[in-house]
Design brief:
With about 500 residues, the protein is mostly helical. The chain has one domain: Helix Hairpins (Orthogonal Bundle), CATH 1.10.287.950. It is built from eight helices and no strands. Helix 1 packs antiparallel against helix 2 and helix 1 packs antiparallel against helix 4. The chain is rod-shaped and about 180 Å long. The two termini are about 20 Å apart.
Amino acid sequence: MTREWTFQKKVLAGFLGMVCLAALTSAVAVYALRAVSASKDRVISVNAQNLIGAAQLSTAVEQEVSEYRRFLIDRDMRILERRKVAMEKFGETARLLRYTVYTDEGKVMLDDIERLNNVLTAEQDKIIELRKSNVRMEVVVQTNEQEAIPMRENLRRQVDAFVDREQRLLQEAEGESTARASQASSILIGLMCLAVVFAALTAFFLSRALSRQIGSAVQHVQSSSAELQATANQQATGARESATAMNEVTTTMSELLVTSRQILESTQRVAHMAQETGSAARAGDETVVKMQEAIAAIRRQVDVIVTHMLDLGKKSQQIGSVLDIINELSEQTNILSINATIEAAGAGEAGKRFAVVGDEIRRLADRVGGSTKEIRALVEEVRSAVNATVLATEGGSKAVDAGLHHFEEVTRGYKQITALVANTTEAAREIELSTKQQTTAVEQINSAIGGAAVGARQVETSSTQTLQTATQLAHLSQDLSRIVQPHAATA
């Protein structure tokens, strides 16, 4: 049955096969692009946002603990307001993460973090009430070390584990997205190779069939010229049918051209979306860097506070030394006043005024000694407060270091996201360029087929002229008609 096909049908069949392969390749390319884009969007909108939320959760915990320790030192009620804001920020971040965390393990870890934070908050509230009730600072510090600090460290470990888990999920999602992109590339390469092999085989069989038919026609040229006049009408009819087929192919190619342009527009929109995503990722990276610089500045301020507190401790020690000297002078003055009183008593009437002066000096010495003791007690309280402040400030410095470390990890994650989005943008641009080249090729094929349709109409005209003037070439016209329409020649 294949031998009864005309050469035109064979060309049309080969062209339709190429069109089908091109349409399949375009469909696979669009599907692969959408899959890669969806995977990248999931990495950016879900995993990256979860990682940022985990870092914000850690920051809220550290801010809450910092404000709590600051209140234990200063007893300023405004600090409790800032602590309340930090607690609300923690609750809001936890609620947002509960909607975005999509694994059971992550939800369990988030529940544990909220439970530990509630327990720690309740314990801190008890210690705050102790501090408000003017309990001695040593009792408050001891209670904080025994009750609140272990809970705080446990909460930090849970938050750090949650942050590490979200970082691991982000890396796994990035690997899965890369694997999908590689798989789509392999499928596209396989379809392209299949199209090349199909085109080569089609060209080989068409050239072979054409050579065989032309050779047979040449062998029958001398014996077939008498039949040319009778079959010229059939040749004209076949030319008209060929022109009609070419018009149908032209219409099909026009529709394919419109489809290719639509695919090109979709690819351009995807490339634009990838560029916007890259811009958003770079903006997020810049924001994280600024926050990192702000935390570093806070660390420097904490170091300055520690230095000033140490200087204040040294100054309080110097005040204690001066008070020792004043106390010694007071004791010596008291002794001198007693001696003066004794001497005045021995002098009789002449020493009464001197005795009054001695009594005044002794009372003044007693007042100086009492004031010295009060000042020494105040200096000891200042020294204890300075030591507690230094300890709290060192704890804050460690918390700032931990926050700075987390922000460095977030910065590295944003840089990786920016690099992956850049790769996606580059892939979208390459697909856009390939689609443009495909559209250009379809336009060229459409133009060529239009030229072939014009040629078919010209063949129809020349067949009418041949009908009037080709009596001696009847047998040759019959063989040539078999090449175009064999059934009509044998009828």
